[in-house]
């Protein structure tokens, strides 16, 4: 990792995530009248680790679904903005509400609607299955695909860079 990337990661106090294509693999399934998506448990652990050391977490999603609300509640995600057709407006609202500076914010996205936010945050992350334009704008591209643990990978990178990973590990090793 470059020292510039580590420097950016060192200032992060809030990790903001897109949902479809990042927290999920972008696929939806239908069973009768019900529609569903799959979330990855490793991502969930990473989100909990961020919260455990005092970092804020947020979701900005263009869609509005009960599944996202439920998952966010289960994981203790601090802020959830759904139905955000213009994500940069949602980001700016969130930034004001949390008294957050751009350099303190990390955003992970995968599609064109994420570009304005990625352009503004201090640390811009893309998943490898993101659109080309998103990957080109990102400071870092995760090795792990969206919906397959990319958020966990990002969480571990930030926590290790900030020297907070040992606090997470205390619970699991003697």
Briefly, what is this?
By secondary structure, the protein is α/β, with parallel strands linked by helices. It has helices spanning about 5-10, 40-50, 65-75, 85-100, 115-120, 130-135, 150-160, 165-170, and strands at about 15, 30, 35, 55-60, 80, 105-110, 125, 140.
Account of the 3D structure:
This protein is α/β, with parallel strands linked by helices and 174 residues long. It has a single domain, classed as HAD superfamily/HAD-like (Rossmann fold), CATH 3.40.50. The protein has eight helices and eight strands. The strands form two sheets. A six-stranded parallel sheet has the order 5-4-1-6-7-8, sandwiched between helices. A two-stranded antiparallel sheet has the order 2-3. α2 packs parallel to α7. The radius of gyration is 15 Å and the shape is globular. The relative contact order is 0.21.
Q: What are the main properties of this structure?
A:
174 residues; alpha/beta; Rossmann fold; 6-stranded parallel sheet; two-stranded antiparallel ribbon; 17% strand
The radius of gyration is 15 Å
CATH fold description: Rossmann fold
pLDDT < 50 runs, ≥5 residues: none
Number of strands: 8
Largest sheet: 6 strands, parallel
CATH superfamily: HAD superfamily/HAD-like
In helices, the fraction of residues equals: 40-55%
Approximate shape: globular
Helix-strand topology string: HEEEHEHEHEHEHEHH
CATH class: Alpha Beta
Count of all domains: 1
Please give the order of strands in the largest beta sheet.
5-4-1-6-7-8
